[in-house]
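ping. complex inputs:
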Amino acid sequence: MVPISYYVILSGVLFGLGVIGFVFKRNIITIFMSIELMLNAVNLAFVAFSREFNQLDGLVFVFFVIVVAAAEAAVGLAIAMVIARNRKSLNVEDVDLLKF
Amino acid sequence: MFPPVQDLYRIAPEIVLCLFGMLVMLIDPFVPAGRQRSMGWLAFAGTLGAFASLRWMFVNPGSAYSGLLRADTFSLFVHGIVIAVAALAILGSFDYLDHEGIQRGEYYALILFATAGMGILAGANELVTAFVGLEISSISTYILAGFRRNALKSNEASLKYFLLGSFATAFFLYGTALTYGATRSTRFEVIDQAIAANGSGALLIIGLGLIFVGLGFKVVAAPFQIYTPDVYEGAPTPVTAVLACGPKAAAFAVMVRVFYGAFGHASHIWFWAIWVSAVLTMCIGNFAAIVQSNVKRLLAYSSIAHAGYILVAFAAASEIGVAAVLFYLAAYAAMTLGAFLILAYVGGTEERRLDIADYAGLGTRQPWVAACFSLFLFSLLGLPATAGFLGKFYSFSAAIDQRLVWLVVIASINSVIGSYYYLKVVVAMYFWEPNKEWTPSPMHAPMFIALLLTALGTIYLGILPDRVMQWAITSAQSLH
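pong. complex structure:
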């Protein structure tokens, strides 16, 4: 049996990759996919802990995360659509009317 | 197997808000063009219904759905704030949506759904429930921030809010997962017992840190405040009014429950994080506000600074501290909502008049509007006999009680710096020569009522705070 620490480290690596992608990528869709990667890292951690503890709780949480991620995707892609239509670009560096 | 009927009473406000939200969405397509305003009144009725249904929550205290939610005085207090914010923001939105040409039913429905999410946050007694509430309110507000679909600034606000908001939620969620791994539960009381029994390991500390990042974004605590000025400036002004008051109150509520309730025994770990964050939040907010010439952006920075003052009370980590947080949230909601509604009114079509120079001469042209705005600004500044003064007073004295002298010294210096930019706007209104001719837009009854109520609230909390403060103390005691 694979020890729990392997799963947790893998999920940590996935989460870290998501953070790196969020910070360094410039395309809105890619940034959005990085966030999805982070959420999937969370799911992996929940499932691993759930099996370790022999509890169902963690598995139930995963469904909540999936549902919320789907809702977020619907809204996020709609926002990306509006940006693409009004600006003819999906690069976040072009979205710079408000000074950061 | 059904949950007992009392559980339904304990989430009555959320049920009422969601029902009215769905009703608005269902009826909206059948409303003839040009009569969309009636949907706003329906939504307003929904907020009044939610207010009335707080009564059911009040007479059925206790935990609901096998401990996922708690209906206590604390939850009731925060519910009161977020529902009032929604009701007044709806009243303040009618004219704005008309002159922007975006008078649609969804707008009101989304405000109701967002408020329902904030209500769940206020009562959440478990991390995943808190996550669901957080997302219901966030996803609705992402759409609201971009509601002026053809305005590039509004698109941009929506995008930034969405990307950074989801990023923060992912942090909160990963923190939840690690906490679950460390304590085998996501319930606040079980986490508390586990920490009391086993101490805090590495997994738990990382989890706590990630949860702090996630909630820090939502309460606008530095260094996670970067998105705030852009989002508040770009979003439609009545939406900014909601964003600045509602989600912040709800997120502070859940932060109180998580940090005092679940991680109370790890307070030596989070205390310094809160302390540093409070100092950074106050300083960044106030210093950046000084150089702003756009009033909407100025108020956005001022709302960051106020999050810092609330964190001062939060750092006190005592019952009085929690009561001070609650009182400050109520006072802050009244004065900030009022100030942003004035901006929505004076800004006019396409938000053209938002510069400080545009406020020149407002004192002679529209003395009542100027007086009202001055009241809100003086309250934000913290002048005695206003809500803002007592909010700061309770907050700072709670911190002094816990011997956080340096924190209070820094906070006091910050409120002095803050007075500069608030007074700059007041001076512009009364002493500057108007730079261009413009005819003031007429003020209609809904906006008038919203402004009247926020102004009365600001004065009431400033002169007769006892009743509300007493209630806040009861709320703080109800946490245990």
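Strands of chain B lie at 62-64, 69-71.
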